[in-house]
Design a protein that fits this description.
Blueprint: H1 10-36, E1 59-61, E2 68-70, H2 71-87, E3 92-95, E4 108-116, H3 118-123, E5 129-136, E6 139-147, E7 152-157, E8 161-165, E9 171-173, E10 186-189, H4 195-208, E11 214-216, H5 221-230, E12 235-239, H6 243-255, E13 259-261, E14 274-278, H7 283-292
Parallel strand pairs: 3-4, 10-11, 10-12
Antiparallel strand pairs: 1-2, 4-5, 5-6, 6-7, 7-8, 8-9, 12-14, 13-14
Helix pairs in contact: 1-2, 5-6
């Protein structure tokens, strides 16, 4: 990943990211039963929309009817922005819900996803995360991803390695799997919300599946990337991710030794660039396979 400019307060940024992410995750845990009447892991689709009359409609949509945003998403991003402003008042913030400039600034920019895996959050599937990264010149230098339901935290600093904590404060180092054959790789992926892009992605998966051990679709890209870092999967690829999807998780995977390729820092999801994280022992073979399948080309 290269060296770190010693004038950049990377440890300070990492501490801010961790503290803010923990507060945000606690808020998300509280809001799920309040909004949907169930604890994580016990939601049902029939409960969506069941909420106290004093609470605004908990679900709206973004790009398509299948691309939801909840009041918890917007509340949590506002909380994150407020906490970041208190800690680092001069920094810019790019967030999934409340936006921000995609132009890469000269100073620190925080890249925030308040709930990565909103559909899982809605249905009570326990796989959704808070993701916060600090970037300098469009490059992530500190990042934290909190697996909200499991209360597991992943983090990394540029050049400082990656770690995981299960909530007791003890940090364990992360390392990608030593797998050396792509045919034995467990691969995570995700799909866009646009129907045409889904068709293209489905064709790629159909060709990929006979060439690897198996495929997983978790539904939260930040967690997919952290799973590469922890060895829970051997590779992850996905088209059309936005910076808030990969800014923290991509750094964590890279600092755990994975080979990581991300879109340009000012890219848009509709451009369809691919994000890849893969265990080093199969990186060349897996990337060649993606090239063969046309999976490293943008899917606009």
């Amino acid at each position: 990943m290269g060296g770190v400019d010693q004038t950049i307060p990377v440890d300070e940024l990492a501490a801010v990211a961790d503290a803010v992410a923990q507060e945000a995750a606690a808020h998300v845990r509280r809001r799920r039963p309040e909004l949907f009447g169930a604890t994580p892991g016990h939601g049902q689709s029939s409960e969506i929309g069941a909420h106290d009359s004093s609470v605004a409609d908990p679900v709206s949509t973004k790009s398509t009817e299948t691309d939801p945003v909840t009041v918890a998403d917007t509340e949590t991003e506002r909380l994150i922005r407020e906490l970041l402003h208190r800690a680092r008042p001069g920094d810019e913030v790019l967030g999934e819900e409340d936006g921000g400039s995609r132009t890469v600034p000269s100073g620190v920019r925080w890249v925030v996803d308040p709930i990565d895996g909103t559909v899982n959050f809605m249905y009570g599937v326990p796989a959704y995360a808070v993701s916060i990264a600090a970037q300098i010149d469009g490059r992530s230098v500190a990042g934290v991803v909190v697996d909200v339901a499991r209360k597991v935290t992943y983090g990394a600093t540029l050049g400082g390695g990656a770690w995981v904590s299960d909530g007791d404060g003890t940090r364990q180092p992360l390392r990608a799997n030593p797998v050396d054959r792509t045919e034995l790789a467990l691969v995570a992926t995700g799909f866009g919300y646009d129907a045409e892009r889904r068709r293209a992605q489905g064709k790629i998966v159909a060709e990929l599946l006979p060439r690897v051990r198996d495929v997983r679709r978790i539904g939260a890209a930040a967690l997919d990337l952290c799973m590469v870092a922890s060895g829970a999967v051997d590779a992850h690829y996905e088209h059309g991710l936005s910076p808030w999807d990969w800014a923290a998780g991509g750094l964590i995977a890279a600092e755990a030794g994975a080979v990581v390729q991300t879109p340009p820092p000012d890219s848009r999801a509709d451009e369809g660039h691919v994000t890849v994280a893969v265990a080093p022992g199969i990186a060349d073979e897996f990337l060649s396979l993606l090239d063969e399948l046309g999976a490293r080309d943008p899917l606009g």
